[in-house]
Amino acid sequence: MINNKHINAVVIGAGAGGGVVAKELATKGYSVIVLERGNWVGYGKHANDELWNQNTQVLGATFGPDFKKNPRSRIDTRGKETIINRGNHGYGNVAACVGSGTVSYGAMGWRFMEEDFKMRSTYGLVEGSTLDDWPISYQDLEPYYEKAEWEIGVSGDDSKNPFAPPRKKPQPMPAFENNKEGKVLESAAKRLGWNPFSIPMLRNSVPFDGRAGCIRNSICIGNACPVSAKNGTHNTVIPKAIETENCEVKTGCIVAEVIVDDQGKATGVKYFDEHDQGHIQTADIVVISASANETARLLLNSKSKFFPNGAGNNNDWVGRNLQGHAYTGAFGLFDYDILDQAGPGATMAICDFNHHNDGIIGGGLLANEFNRLPYRFRNVRPPGASKWGMEHKNFQRLNYKRISQFVGPIQEMPNFESRVMVSPTVKDHWGIPVVQFSGARHPLDHEHCKFLSEKAELLLKEAGAVETWQSVGGKGQGGGQHQAGTARMGNDKQTSVTNKYGQVHDIDNLFIADGSLIPNNAGFNPSLTIMALGFWVGEYIGESFKHLLTAKK
Fold it and tell me: Which 3 state secondary structure label does DSSP give 486?
């Protein structure tokens, strides 16, 4: 093992949360090293390869990881373990690169609603669920949403969304105009008495902060932006952190363990570099921002005298309450070309069914979907349609631009048995026990998906579709797309992993800053919320450890 020079803070993961925390600390004068398992990527290095990106079926898998070196496993209801070593939905991947999912995402920039922070208070106890209130309110996080919108860059206009939470400042850029599909669906929504509006996007509708405006690339989602108009941590806060000369980003680094000493304090991390050489990086502060799956894995693999079951896991809550988003909605076949392929596709949404629906706990947004490339479109067929042969090919040729999808993420019900563990038998290339999934979604998720899909189909019929069919989600296991919940924040350390500032209970200098913190994942894409939490946690660390800066002087 190589012993590196001691620093103030080591941040594990350069995604939506980690990149923000690194910037917050570096600009305040802290010495920071970011350890990222992937590399710097861009449009030139990773062109829009449809067959690779869509065949993997996982958003962002173009950017890694190497699934053979990084297997995972799953335990079924009979206790049988299955190894997952390819990029499919069962893997639960997020992009492995600087910026992580913010490089490849569709870039919706939603704020959660006020009710999303107080689900237990709003809906009461849900049998079989660990549904709870956040330890912070929307009002607490609102200034940090604003900071994320202006420092990262969001285009939008909440004035047409009557369900938008209160804000003190508008988004910094105007909303995107609807594409052809969006205009048709918007008119239909208004006829139904619903409230359509433009989707807030972490993309530049106009030039912003030295980066170009969006060129409406039709295959934006899943790929890097050719003009850097899609905003993530890789092209905003991380470059600003590096400019301070207080922050270094080390790529190709696999963190194996958080080192916790015999006094219960985190002293640093063990990691392997791009050449498989082992390192010990000591630090005053450790921040984990590795995604809900990998953050839980790292905590569970970090065993010590005071934490024999993993760092922060003395009450068996690390890895529990794994959530993602079940996407649900409907398809509509039109007798004309409704898609004009203006990227990234999604422009119009409604929030009429996010909350306060009879018999439903929570809900979700609905929006026109991101553009599908032809390879992925091969699976979009009405019930009974041929999936091979000449009939299949003719349908593909005729209807590629004639099918609209209205879809959204349902708010999943967290439950104790949906979880991330570490495998006792399967290890990765570096000999580290891998993520092992077990459990399933709450039964209510599928029922709620059926409700939202019915609303989506109703809209498509109103819009004039000649044939419609539902696509209903909510079965199986969560924790794939938009994974969250495995190190939830809370006031009671008996039922949470961190306090309201992302500080791991009983380890004062170990913090979490990613989707793991989120107690309930809402009915929205969580990227902007994770960024806001990054600013929230980063500010707290920066203010609480000022003595380190005084000592440096």
Answer: coil
**The token pair that represents 232 in the structure block:** 């993530």
Residues of the chain with pLDDT under 50: 54-56
Strand intervals (E) in 416-514:
419-427, 433-438, 467-471, 510-512
Q: Which residue has the tokens 């580290």?
A: 432
Residue 10 carries which DSSP code? E
Inter-residue contact 271 to 523 (CB < 8 Å): no
CA atoms within 13 A on the CB side of 25: 33
217: how many CB neighbours lie within 10 A of its CB?
Answer: 22
The letter for the amino acid at 149 is: E
Q: Which residues contact 546 (CB under 8 A, 6 or more apart)?
A: none
What number of other Cβ atoms are within 10 A of residue 333's Cβ? 21
Alpha-carbon gap, residue 292 to 516, rounded angstroms: 4
| Residue-wise pLDDT tens digits, 128-154 | 999 999 999 999 999 999 999 999 999
Whether 484 and 527 have beta carbons less than 8 Å apart is answered as no
Rg value, the chain, Cα: 22
The architecture (CATH level 2) of 2-552 comes to 3-Layer(bba) Sandwich (3.50)
User: How far is Cα of residue 466 from the mean position of the Cα atoms in its chain?
Assistant: 35
* CA-wise closest residue to 30 among 21, 17, 42: 21
Q: What is the pLDDT of residue 230?
A: 97
Per DSSP, the residues of 143-160 read HHHHHHIIIII-B--GGG
Q: Domain residue spans in the chain?
A: 2-552
DSSP 8-state class, residue 395 = H
Quote the CA–CA distance of 186 and 197 in Å, as a whole number: 8
**Token code pair at residue 119:** 């689900």
- 8 Å CB contact between 486 and 504: no
Give me the amino acid identity at 487. Answer: A
Residue with structure tokens 């994770």? Answer: 530
The three-state secondary structure class of 114 is helix
The model carries a pTM of: 0.97
Question: Order of strands, edge to edge, in the sheet holding 81-84?
Answer: 81-84, 72-75, 433-438, 419-427
- pLDDT tens-digit series, residues 426-457: 999 999 999 999 999 999 999 999 999 999 99
Whether residue 144 contacts residue 533, with contact meaning beta carbons closer than 8 Å, is answered with yes
